[in-house]
Design a protein that fits this description.
By secondary structure, the protein is an alpha+beta fold. The chain has one domain. It contains two helices and two strands; from the N terminus they run ββαα. A hairpin with a 5-residue loop joins strand 1 and strand 2. The chain starts with 17 loop residues before the first strand and ends in a 14-residue tail after the last helix. The structure holds zinc ion.
């Protein structure tokens, strides 16, 4: 467990640039910087980040 998982990029005086990270479907995940990006993105499933069809098994009920 690393503190970087909860890194507050904007409050870290060493960090002058941070950005928002989105998954493959454009859903906001978290704010990251060069310090914590690796740790934070490691918390997510790889397919969430790379495969925009990761949620394609969503049940679609067609009860009219
Ligand atoms: Zn950070």
């Amino acid at each position: 467990m690393s503190d970087l998982q909860h890194h507050l990029c904007k409050q870290d005086p060493d960090v002058d640039y941070s950005w928002e990270e989105y998954d493959a479907r454009g859903i906001y995940l978290c704010r990251v910087c060069t310090k914590c990006v690796k740790t934070k993105l490691a918390m997510y499933r790889r397919d969430v980040l790379t495969d925009s069809n990761y949620h394609a098994d969503e049940p679609i009920e067609e009860e009219a």
